């Protein structure tokens, strides 16, 4: 409840779509929100995406469906076509995009006010480390947000400041057994390697409270990033896909880089897959390359330098 109050995550009468995998975090979230249903006059709807990565994934979907029946809540379930599982690139990124797309589409269909996900404090710490290892700036270090609007849909994470062990204890005390994803025990994803290898090492050799330290770092950085992001928006108003060259060349480097990310986001919807190297290339385009030059970015976006402007376009 503290996180819900702190970030004003729930309003009376909200219709909330709950992403439920069947695992400990999402199941505990479902039960917690259900306990608040009468007090806040909430309308709840369960959503489950079957990734099709495991042979027993169908049992997870059935488990979630039964919980919906037990609580008398509607459930929407979708199974990814098997060929999609063989998608090129990062499986982590692929499944994340598919989940978000499914949640947004379902929320739009049922006209939900918010989408609730079960990320916890441990997830926050793992995310910060994962982004740090891959290379990131303030945006990445700010970690996961307790409340964030993504492409017109509000996502809330009521457990973001709750340790995983506390969630496990909550279920154990009630005699509830969640579904356990066997792939979470395999080090095929970077997050699992961080969870099973790096964090135990950091706890044992460097700081037993490393999870809390990293979560605190994410919160502090998120405040700094939010302030700078607002400053960047005020610094240069107008069409974000067409930036005046003379004006952006006078900006402080920190504000310029944020302005570039904002322009990319206005075309792409977010800045995922935009690396530090991409930003450096755009800076080189602005200050060193001749007009007519182009920098290609992920997801079919390219940036062209004209005589007076920097143009953000999509193929």
Provide an overview of this structure.
This protein has two domains: 162 residues, HUPs (Rossmann fold, 3-Layer(aba) Sandwich), CATH 3.40.50.620; 76 residues, Uridine Diphospho-n-acetylenolpyruvylglucosamine Reductase, domain 3, CATH 3.30.465.60. The mean pLDDT is 90. The chain has 315 residues and is of the alpha/beta class. The protein has a six-stranded mixed beta sheet with strand order 3-2-1-4-6-5, sandwiched between helices.
Structure at a glance:
With 315 residues, this protein is an alpha/beta fold. The chain is 50% helix and 15% strand. Strand 5 (147-150) and strand 6 (153-156) form a beta hairpin.
Global morphology: globular
The domain tally reads 2
Radius of gyration (CA) equals 21 Å
Helix content: 40-55%
Structural class: alpha/beta
DSSP helical segment count: 13
The CATH class of the largest domain turns out to be Alpha Beta
Query: What is the mean predicted local confidence, pLDDT?
Result: 90
The termini sit apart by 46 Å
Question: SSE order, as H and E?
Answer: HEHHEHEHEHHEEHHHEHHHEEE
For the biggest sheet, the summary is: 6 strands, mixed
Overall strand count: 10
Strand sequence of the main sheet, in spatial order?
Answer: 3-2-1-4-6-5
Q: Looking at CATH, which topology of the largest domain would you report?
A: Rossmann fold
The CATH H-level homologous superfamily of the largest domain: HUPs
């Amino acid at each position: 409840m503290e996180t819900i109050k702190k970030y004003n995550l729930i309003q009376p009468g909200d219709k909330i779509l709950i992403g439920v995998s069947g695992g400990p975090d999402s199941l505990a979230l479902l039960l917690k929100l259900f306990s608040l249903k009468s007090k806040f006059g909430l309308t709840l709807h369960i959503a489950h995406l079957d990734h099709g990565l495991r042979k027993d994934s169908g049992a997870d979907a059935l488990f979630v469906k039964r919980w919906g029946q037990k609580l008398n809540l509607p459930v929407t379930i979708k199974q990814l076509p098997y060929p999609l599982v063989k998608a090129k690139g990062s499986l982590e990124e692929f499944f994340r995009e598919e989940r978000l797309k499914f949640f947004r589409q379902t929320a739009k269909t049922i006209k939900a006010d918010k989408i609730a996900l079960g990320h916890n404090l441990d997830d926050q710490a793992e995310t910060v480390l994962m982004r740090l290892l891959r290379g990131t700036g303030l945006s990445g270090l700010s970690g996961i947000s307790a409340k964030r609007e993504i492409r017109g849909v509000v996502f809330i994470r009521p457990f973001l400041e709750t340790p995983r062990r506390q969630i496990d204890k909550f279920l154990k005390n009630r005699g509830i057994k969640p579904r356990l994803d066997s792939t979470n025990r395999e080090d095929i994803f970077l997050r699992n390697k961080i969870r099973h290898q790096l964090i135990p090492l950091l706890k044992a050799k460097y700081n037993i409270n490393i999870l809390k330290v990293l979560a605190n770092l994410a919160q502090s950085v998120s405040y700094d990033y939010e302030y700078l992001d607002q400053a960047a928006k005020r610094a240069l108003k107008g069409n974000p896909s067409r930036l005046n060259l003379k004006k952006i060349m006078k900006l402080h480097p920190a504000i310029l880089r944020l302005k570039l990310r904002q322009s990319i986001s206005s075309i792409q919807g977010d800045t995922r897959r935009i690396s530090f190297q991409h930003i450096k290339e755009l800076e080189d385009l602005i200050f060193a390359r001749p007009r007519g030059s182009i920098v290609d970015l992920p997801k079919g976006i390219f940036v062209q330098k004209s005589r007076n402007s920097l143009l953000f376009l999509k193929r």
